[in-house]
Amino acid sequence: MSSALPQDANDAYRQTVADETNLPPAPSRVGTVRRDPNGKIEAIDPTSEKGAGPRLCDIGTICVGTGQAYPSLSAALAVARDGDVIEIAGGTYRESVKITPKNVVVRGIGGLPHFDCAGLKLADDKACLLLAADGVTIDNLEISGAELPDSLGANGACIRNEPNLSFTLHRIVCHGSQDGILTSGGSVVIEDSEFYDNGWTGQTHNVYFSGDCPSVTVRRSIFRDARLGHEFKSRCRETTVSDSTIRSTKGSRNLDISDGGKTVVYRTTLVKIPGTVNHDIVGFAPETCRYPEDMLLKDVRIVNSEPNAIIRNYDKCTGHAIILEHVEVEGTAPLERGYILKR
């Protein structure tokens, strides 16, 4: 017996497929539903839900914490909609989550909530907080303990994004993980944050911005004491670091700008001590010249006690320099290698 559809049925099927490709995007989630006391079905507004204790969060936010409407971030995310603000009361949270609503804000209040992922299965075997939507903002959280076995890549991250999704971090403390941040494209903004004791191997780092990354912008932040990897590694087309400290005491380069790109570092302190894995304070385009641009260090302070420390332009971007403008050195002046200009 033939299972082939008649011609008119095939035509209808093809038209249905064509129509589906032109459907409008799905509407935003409206939360879960329940029956009110009169038996009428109603949508739950998660921002107005109350817990057993006094509400700690601002009006109009989804409230997470002991005695609040939602006991965990994962519970709050299950009902969150695009653009919602989730506030998390201070405390320790033993969970790893995947954030899927767009433009959501996840914000700690009443102290510094700590997401301790040590020993937990990471979201999608990737990160303690996995950002699976565009425009996510994470504010005032401590994150630690993200670790994966060798069989899964040994690159568990405090924070990781799905490909080409942009995000913003404010007041983040990330430590004790194989990667602090590990990205796959997307633009990133980091402010008033600290990353330390990450980068456990030569393939993991305190922070690593990879993939098709348009830009990373850092303000008033600290990157320090990676175990083996780089303190700050960027493959972005544009990298901007200001008013920050990057200190290498055990790991590799302070700054690894792997593929070139427009790079500006200003009002920033770079610290290097003996015993680090790599003597480079700066490595500009050590791998490729994907983005042929200059690197500018302006009003930068270098504190160095490593006698073999180097500011190194690998000269893969022919004709593009590391430009040193008002760079002051305390301790041993680093060696300079490759095309370097002084102003």
The SS-based structural class is: mainly beta
Total discrete domains: 2
Unreliable stretches covering 5 or more consecutive residues: none
**Beta strands, count:** 32
Largest sheet: 20 strands, parallel
- CATH topology of the largest domain, anyone? Pectate Lyase C-like
CATH class wording of the largest domain: Mainly Beta
Helix content: under 10%
Distinct helical segment count: 2
CATH architecture of the largest domain: 3 Solenoid
* Computed CA radius of gyration, to the nearest angstrom: 24 Å
Give the mean pLDDT: 93
- Report the end-to-end length measured between terminal Cα atoms: 84 Å
Short characterization:
6% of the residues lie in helices and 39% in strands. It is mostly beta strands and 343 residues long. It folds into two domains: 170 residues, Single-stranded right-handed beta-helix, Pectin lyase-like (Pectate Lyase C-like, 3 Solenoid), CATH 2.160.20.10; 111 residues, no CATH class.
What would you note in describing this structure?
By secondary structure, the protein is mainly beta. It folds into two domains: 60-229, Pectate Lyase C-like, CATH 2.160.20.10; 233-343, no CATH class. It has helices at 7-20, 73-77, and strands at 33-35, 41-43, 62-64, 85-89, 92-93, 97-99, 105-109, 114-116, 127-131, 136-144, 157-161, 167-175, 179-184, 188-191, 194-196, 207-210, 215-219, 222-224, 232-234, 238-242, 245-248, 255-257, 262-266, 269-272, 280-284, 295-298, 301-304, 310-313, 322-325, 328-331, 335-337, 340-342. The chain has a 20-stranded parallel beta sheet that branches. It has a ten-stranded parallel beta sheet with strand order 6-9-11-13-16-19-22-25-28-31. The protein has a two-stranded antiparallel ribbon with strand order 1-2. α2 links the parallel β3 and β4 (85-89). The chain is globular, with a radius of gyration of 24 Å. The model has no long low-confidence stretch (mean pLDDT 93).
